[in-house]
Amino acid sequence: MIVANGVAKYLGIGGFSLATNATITKTIGILAGPMGWLLVAALTSLSIAGPAYRVTIPAVIQVAFLRQVYLKKRNAAIIRCLIYSAIIGVLYYYGFTDSFFEWIYNWWDG
Q: Roughly what angle, to the nearest 10 degrees, separates helices 51-93 and 34-48?
């Protein structure tokens, strides 16, 4: 209110009356509370229904879905690599040599 009164005085209108100050304060309080949230939600839903968002929102959802698929496959590959590393470590621990792994590699390649 101090800023609003200062601007009004600077513009030559003079300061606001007590009733005007009270009305402005009450209006700001209402717009900042739940009524303001409802107003913002209504205006947002109207703007989302516009033609640009009919393309943008499905595209964003599609990209998010593809990213989740990619992350799931990547995580599965990381887990598979860790399991293979653990198996190879156990085989080395029990004395299997490089020739055994070469045999497995050649067998796997066909």
A: 90
The DSSP result for 68-107, as a single string, is HHHHHHHHHHHHHHHHHHHHHHHHHHTT--HHHHHHHHHH
> pTM to 2 decimals?
0.39
Give the separation between CA 90 and CA 108, rounded to whole angstroms.
Answer: 19
Shortest CA distance to 104 belongs to which of 87, 80, 83? Answer: 87
Torsion angles phi and psi, residue 108, rounded to 5: -70, -40
pLDDT digits (tens, 9 = 90+) for 36-45: 788 878 888 8
CA distance 32 to 2: 18
C-alpha span between 57 and 63 (Å, rounded) = 10
Tokens of residue 2, six digits: 């101090």
**b (16+ CB within 10 A) / e for 79-105:** eeeeeeeeeeeeeeeeeeeeeeeeeee
